């Protein structure tokens, strides 16, 4: 019997009625992962501890919907006594001595951590191919990329290994793989979720978020991880509401904007068609949808490259082999130690550190970094202006569907793929990917719903409406076998 | 030899006297077991983030206030990026673009001439860890990593080592008195870097400057500046061109030595620290801090002189912070302040130094001191028997009167018995009485000596003196 592909309320009911135990779910999760081994979605499994925890929970009361439920954690979120590698050789033996705040929070709910998921090295990439442990594969077509950087989390949720996964999103790293793999992924408002314990890539953009098979479960997981954290000065003191509260509620007096840029020639025709279908659906339901011009969107990638690379070059400086992580043997002197130790970074990470260092160097800081911050501010204001007239912005999440794993990795092209997701990070806004259909070769297509800051509840409301209307079959295994 | 005018600028790092570190809740302490005051934040572990200690903000605002600086109302932190093993994140969180204080000054006085040493800026930053090197191995102690510092930077407006010394002494006194820092140079809680350049004429452009790093004492700052000046003059006189250098002062050589030649502008790749949002400093915060500023040395001195203290006593009291604070409490009472200052700086200080304790740890409250002084003023206590009871006065809570009685040194104040003794002594020494009547003061001394001998020193000198004069003039 399989449970992990069922809805959370159903699984919870079975747990409450003692028809199943947490250990059944844990065993199923590890069996699923074993069956899907070739997808390479995990770096480290937490088998012993997960089983131990499941057994401990048997004597405890099932007091919340997340109780005893398996969850996968992106491997850039630190977990005490569970290896956290950031998919990098430099941390491939790093055993953290503390928990990220989100880990404490999911532990409070008595969720069970199944393992640490594969990703781009230090979350730098949008295909997960920069992982030191090899790329995960797309469950809809093993020849295709999973997307990234939270590729492993997207894959393991898409093929129902586990119910929940956490990802992180600096420039689309939750929404884009969610789109490629056909799942729901939310990048919450900057500050909504504590970053304490998230290994920093670009501090002013990074945000942890939930990745799930449906909207309700996504909101539920955000309920568990959101909230002010005194350990993270950039986390928001804004009260955490119940993000599921408007799910299924009628959408009244809603106005939606579609930036013309999001539906321009940069997006493939099949994706535009699917988004147009959604627009039609919304209009049919008396929701007003306008195509509008939004300034600065086309600058997003440039801004991202400057700000994210700059911050990354500084954030990754701490990996010097002195206090933790990989340390080169027999260095001649301190410079040699730095040089040899840091040589083990992968090429993409090195490229970003070098570009970032260059951009912050001497006069460049003013020419590039300061200017980027100022345009970022303009972009933020421009988007805020849109939200004075509209409740949401929608558009495609990606310009194409997942492409082939062996397709040549052109860093510039890879950045351009993120042009639709990056503005959300630049403005610190919440953005969610919801599957809206499939391409002709049966690859998932996603739509992005963007709202003003701290509007996650309303984003889930619209997303759940679309989810219900479309009622898509989103389990990649369902075509192959019958339960 | 031509005369050269030195232009000197000084940067001082001061460790703030906070309970915890600047960006984590590790304790801020000195001399503890290596790496015992650390946590994942101090060690720069992946995923950790800084928090901001409010105490640091308050002390930095205080420093800006007492150094007459303007205060930046909206400020942020910046990252200074450089690789070094004592720098756990390989960037230091500091303030580059928006230092908390700017445009201040410290007034110094040399040979009765006052000069304002202008302060360019005060900024907040974290200290690095301490590295030691032993037989081909390096050891890192992160107890100091993340200890809050302020860096105080003067404008290049100091023109002699004397001025430099006066500035540092004054700065130290102010910071210490405002409870901002311990200012212990020997423990590294105050460290100075000085830079110096020479020119022949005030209108000439500034010369090539050399920086002397990490000087361990104020006298060494003065000394190293003098030595560096001589070195530069020698080179200039030889017609050589100076190069920008970083040097250090070597105690043993008694001279500055080269550390490195400065390369074209260090590239620290500063950018605003994204992990700490902008800090807004409100009028209210400043007002709150202002209330916590204790009376500063200059003000204390004025006050003490106005209360009749000698210049030397006033200065000495201020040099001893706990004693000066104590004395300020004494000033609130009605007593003989001059006697109070003499006592505090004399026998009491001797006791405190010998026992290595603070005046506040003794039982001598200001009101007990007031009482003690009243017994001295009315002649009950002489300086000799004061010494006998001082330990008790400082160590026990017994009433002063009882201590005096208990030790049996209560002066004879019973006038009738005393008068009898005096009369007898006069009658036995009539020739001395005549001596007195002839106008010789030494006679009084003789009689007093005789009386004290007779009473074993217990006679109240003032009363005795009064009765003696009465009897002699009878």
Brief overview:
Helices cover 36% and strands 14% of the residues of chain A. Chain A is an alpha/beta fold.
How does this structure look, described?
The complex is a heterodimer of chains A (483) and B (474). Helices cover 36% and strands 14% of the residues of chain A. Chain A has one domain (1-483): Amidase signature (AS) enzymes (Alpha-Beta Complex). In chain A, helix 5 runs parallel beside helix 6. Chain A is an alpha/beta fold and 483 residues long. Chain A starts with 7 loop residues before the first helix and ends in a 13-residue tail after the last helix. Chain A is built from 15 helices and 13 strands. In chain A, 58% of the residues are buried. With 474 residues, chain B is an alpha+beta fold. Helix content of chain B is 39%, strand content 20%. Chain B is built from 15 helices and 16 strands. In chain B, helix 12 crosses helix 14 and helix 13 packs antiparallel against helix 14 (442-454). Chain B is elongated. The N and C termini of chain B lie far apart (80 Å). Chains A and B meet through helix 9 and helix 12 of A and strand 15 of B.
* CATH H-level superfamily title of chain A: Amidase signature (AS) domain
Biggest sheet character of chain B:
9 strands, mixed
The share of residues in helices of chain A is 25-40%
CATH topology of chain A: Amidase signature (AS) enzymes
Strand order of the largest sheet of chain B: 2-6-7-10-1-11-12-13-14
Count of separate structural domains of chain A: 1
For the secondary structure, the number of strands of chain B is 16
Greatest chain-chain interface? Answer: A-B, 44 and 31 residues
